[in-house]
Structures are given as C-alpha cells and as structure tokens.
Amino acid sequence: xxxxxxxxxxxxxxxxTSMAAGRDTISVVGSSTVYPFSTVVAExxxxxxxxxTPKIESTGTGGGMKLFCAGVGVDTPDMSNASRRIKASELKxxxxxxxxxxVEVLVGYDGIVFSNAIEAPNISISLQDIFLALAKEIPNPxxxxxLIENPYMKWNEINPSLPDMNISVYGPPPTSGTRDAxxxxxxxxxxxxxxxxxxxKKKDKNRYKSICHSVREDGAYIETGENDNLIVQKLTTxxxxxxxxxxxxxxxxxxxxxxxxxxxxxxxxxxxxxxxxPISRPLYFYVKKAHVGKVPGxxxxxxxxxxxxxxxxxxxxxxxxxxxxxxxxxxxxxxxxMSLQSVSL
Amino acid sequence: MTKAVNESLPTSAxxxxxxxxxxxxxxxxMMFKSTGLAAVVLGFILVFVLLFDITSKxxxxxxxxxxxxxxxxxxxxxxxxxxxxxxxxxxxxxxRKAIANQFPDVKSRRDKRKLYGLYSTxxxxxxxxxxxxxxxxxxxxxxxxxxxxxxxDIYLKETxxxxxxxxxxxxxxxxxxxxxxxxGRIDKRFNIEFFTSSDSREPELAGVRGALTGTMLxxxxxxxxxxxxxxxxxxxxxxxxxxxxxxxxxEVNINNLAAVPSIIFGLLGLAVIINxxxxxRSAPLVGGIVLTLMTLPTIIIASRASIKAVPPSIREAATxxxxxxxxxxxxxxxxxxxxxxxxxxxxxxxxxLGETAPLLMIGMVAFIVDVPASxxxxxxxxxxxxxxxxxxxxRGFLAKTSAAILVLLGFLFLMNASAAYLRRRFxxx
Lengths: 345, 429
Hints:
The complex is a heterodimer. By secondary structure, chain A is of the alpha/beta class. Chain A contains 15 helices and 13 strands. In chain A, the strands form 3 sheets. In chain A, strands 1, 2, 3, 4, 8, 9, 10, 11 and 13 form a 9-stranded mixed sheet that branches. Chain A has a two-stranded parallel sheet with strand order 5-12. Chain A is globular, with a radius of gyration of 23 Å. The model of chain A is unreliable at about 10-20 (pLDDT under 50). Classes of the chains: A alpha/beta, B mainly alpha. At the A-B interface, helix 1, helix 2, strand 2 and helix 11 of A face helix 10 and strand 4 of B.
C-alpha cells in the first residue's frame, strides 16, 4: 500500500545516512560584496582544474567571520570573504577557538557610488554636502558647537550649486556592509570637516560615532533592503531621487544611471583604483592555514585568485566591477599569500 | 407611510412587514453575491496579470544566440607535442587567434579586449571540450559554435536597428555584431542548457539543473519524514490516545507550532542538527529535516480533522465484525481519511517548496555549481536560486529569474497534480 511503501522508504533514507567524514569541496562564507567576485573565480577554477567547484555562501562579513572562527576541522569553512579588514576582536575569537594562523588576501577595491537616473541633472557634490543632507543631526549653522535636527529639505538649501530638488536618497539598511562603509567613508568624511567634531574622536569616541554615523529618519533617506537591483529600478522610475550602492551596479547599468562627482572625482575605474574617488574600500578574504593540505585544492585556488588573469588590470573579475590593485601591490600580495604568511594586526 | 399601512390593514401587520423588508433582503443578497463574484474575478485577474508578467519577462531566457568560430587546432597554435595531455594545451590563445582572424582590421589592444568580450568566457572551455571529445580533429580547422556574451545576447534580443549602440553595447561593438549577423555567423537557438546546466556567474551559462535537483532531493527527504510521522501522530492522537489534559496540551502546542515563523526552524537546524549531530552544512538532508519540522504541524492538523470526519459507524461496524482496534484503524479509517490527509500534505509541501528563510541558516543559500548526487552533497533549492539571481547585477539574470519562477511553478503544479491523482484513487475505492 502507498503509505507502507513510503514508511519503508523513509526508514531506508534514515538508515543509509552516513556522515561525511572528509570534504573535497572548498567551503567559503562571508561578505555579499565579495561574493560576485569569488564566485567568478570559483567557477573558472572548477572548470579549469580537476578539483570540485568551491561552495560559496553569502552570509555577510560579520556572520562569515563567526562561522570561520568557530574552529578547525572539515565542518568549518576554509575561507571567509570580508568587505573590511578582520577586526582584532575577531582574530582573538579565532585564536580562542584554535584557529591560530590566518592568511589575509587583499583582492582589490570596491567603490560606493552616489547615483541618479541619466536623464536627471548630473551633480558635483562634496562629502560635507552628503553629510549635511543625510545626517540625523548637523552642527548648528550659526557656528556654535551645538547640534540641531537636520533641517534641510532641499539640495540647494545645503549648497546653492546643487539642484532645487527635494532630498530623497535610496540606500542600504544598517545590516548591510555597504552601509557601514558608506557611513565610515562618506558620512564620517564629511563630518570630520568640522574641527570640533573631529576633536571629539579622541575625547568621546562613542559620541563622535553617533554624530557621524547616524542617518536621518524623517523620510529623506529611504532604506531599500539589501537588494541593490531594487535601488537601481527605483532610480530609473524616479529621476528626482538619488541612490547609494556598489560600483558594479553602476557599471552594469551605465545606460540608465550616472554617478555623481564626489569631491571632484567621478566614480570611474581609474579614479577608484588610485584613491582619487573618496568612497572606496578594500576587499579581502581570509584563509585558514590549518586547512591547507587537508581540503584539496586550497593552494591552487589561491594561485588562481591571486593571478594576473583573475584580479590583474585586465583580469576577468574586473569585468564584474572589481577595482584592481596596482601591479606592484599585487605582486607583493601574491608573494605573501603563496608563502602563507599569517596576518597580524 | 408605515403608519398608513398599519391603519388600513391592521390584521396582517406581520405579513406587511415581511413584504416591506423583502426588497431590502433581496438587495443585500444581491450585494453579497456580487461582492463574492467580484472577489473571485479580482483574484483571477491578479493571478493572470502575475503569470502574464512573469511569462513575458521569462521568454528571452529560453533562447540563446550562438556565434560560429573558425578554430585552427594546429599543433603549433596549441603548443602540442607528443606526450602532452589534451587537457593542458593553450586554448585561450588559440581562441583569441580565432576571434582575431574574424576581424583582421581590429588592431589596438583596447579594441581587441572589447572584441574578446563579445564571446562568452566559456568559449575557451567549449573548444577544449570539443578537441577532447574529437581528438582526431587535431591539426585541422574546425567550425565551432560558441555562445555569445550575455550583453551581446541581450542586444540581439532587444535591438530594433542593428549596428546602433544600445544598453551596454557601444557603436564599435554594435558594428562588429552587425557584420557577424550579416555573414550568417550568428544563430538563435532554443536554450536547452537552461535545464541541463547549473548555476553560473555568467548569465548565458546559468541553468536550473542543480537547484531543481536540490529541490527534488530536499522535498523527498521532507515527504519521507513528515508524511509517515504526521499521519502516525494524527492517528495516535485521534484513535488511541486517552482524552485528558496532557493530550489537550499537546494539541494546543501543535496548533501553536504551525504558526511559528520559519526562520526559527532554521536556527534550530543550525544549533541542533548541524552543531550537535554534526550533519554536513548545505545538505538537502539537513534542509529536508528542517522543512519537516515546519510541515509536520500542518500535516498533523489536517490529518486529525480528516480522521475525525470518518463516521463512527464505520468503526463500529468493523469492531462488530470482530476487527481489532488496529485493524479497524488501518483498513477502514485511514483509507477513508486519506483524501483529506493528502490535501493537508500537499499544502504543507507547497509551503516547504517556497521556503528560503530557514535554509539561509543552514548554508543552503550559496553559490553551488556541481549538481548534487546524494542527500549529503552541498546544494541549493529553486527559491534560493531565484533569490540569488534576482540579487545579481548582470541584466541577463533578469530573464533567468522569471524563467526560474516559471520552472518552480511548474514543479508545484506537478506536485499538486500527483496529489490530485492519488486523492482520486483513494476516493473511488
């Protein structure tokens, strides 16, 4: 009878379950920003070699580090992608769990763009303007060292050279790595321009952070979830709005979107690479040294990832929007990675 | 007015009252009927709009443009000499030579790079696979069809005037594409690879096979665990368990369990199944167990309702003829309750089919290229694949996302159809 068969089948399924003792697939976790690049490398690696294609999970930088540092052994990941450098606290957590040696790989840079639809006016904006437009509280315009609720509703109230449009910016939510980087490089960059706030950094770090990183909540800044494609779609239908997202999305949608000039530089490949464009961040991944030789293919994967073909000036990850390292830096980085030097902060 | 009526016909006041309210009652009945009809029609329109939207967006994904390349497999080009394996030859430079031969006028480094970009990055592996499959073609010139890049594919599908720049294709590239089309080297084919290949970061190569296999394995595990467990639990609670405050409490708890957000089950899966029992991450086995926890309450509740609905006379008749309790249950009650149980199962399974949240915690939201061969291999499922593609910057994935939704809907339809078939068989018995 039908249900008897099913019952037998389910018993058989439970009985034949054997635990996988070894693992022959490299397991990678971590940042969703590095994910598009490491997947390309992984796919090519799987095709060009006899090793299995690495498995790559997009868990976010912090979540990835937690899994990565949970211990040594085949049930923990071999590598973790990160859209920022590993924190001292994370390294400590790793050491406590027996992950003594961690190899750092710097793969390249990512720019965060301030963008709007191509039929809307192209603007040139400074980090200070961005801070004044999006911060929750801003320094009192009368020059005293006090803060007021952000009063600006239009761009040209901040800076007369900006257009007469309502401030309306689509951007990532606080859980996103892009938001962290934007707060750190974009907002804080403009915030630091005020001397007295800058002095706070040494005296009262928490207060400094809360002034510089808090984003207004009165509707001018619209959180749009982790999906950058959604922001792209919103911008094309609403030419009066701006959006904040990763450079690769601007690169892929250059027919409908334009990047704004920030501090005098357009978000172009060259200007992000040499640091002229102010909002860019390094991308890393970390490798567990103890797993080299235990899980097959790790050295070969590292070799592929650090090759000129992959992340060099004309490498295939640059087609996906990764901003490459300079060739000297790449050479240096490759040497230290291939000799498996462990990171120390 | 009512007063006047009351005066003229004092005896039949009640009848009159009814007569007066009759129009009102008819009207409210009409209102109710038309509201119900409007709700049904609205529902149909919404479903239709949804399907139409998805289908129209998905259509481009089912075709793919190919380009013909004249590849010179000379030993010189490939740097072949006796004893070298065909795996290790210089395929990339051979491919680049073949592409450059198609456009002898392109000289500058920058332009050449653009030109190579018109061909799928997979072309290198395509010519490699061709040579390995046909080793006797070494030292000959072969015409090989390879895929075009996803940007070119979109251009060819969307352009109205060939040779004009559009989307991510600029004037130069558009002219090159035009010359390829005019010499008949471009061909549009049905994209069978969408069903036979797995995930890829290149939209022109990406397919659903890996995710579909993962979904089937996960659903199989879920069904194999939740159906027998759910039915057994329901039978015990309805037929055998004494009615006391313990069984009451169990009932309340099962009902509550059905309302728990699914991500909680994912956390449980991570903490217990992976961390304590040490089952592998990202495996359909773990996914199936987590989804079982989620579907189990649905199946138990539906099964209990359907077992309760079997008339007591059936049980009494069986007992009267000398059947034992267990004989009565398995040969009379269960077959009669089966149609309802199957309905509950299919609702639970359909819910599980669309879940991504709990799978996030157990590592099934991942980039996995190899097709899973068993329930302990790493794999993803269809809804996860849809989510990952929808999140990708490449425009080619837009159509793929919709196409994957259609495949998922198709799978759901098949699942429902088989349940309907089984239900009919049980009902006719």
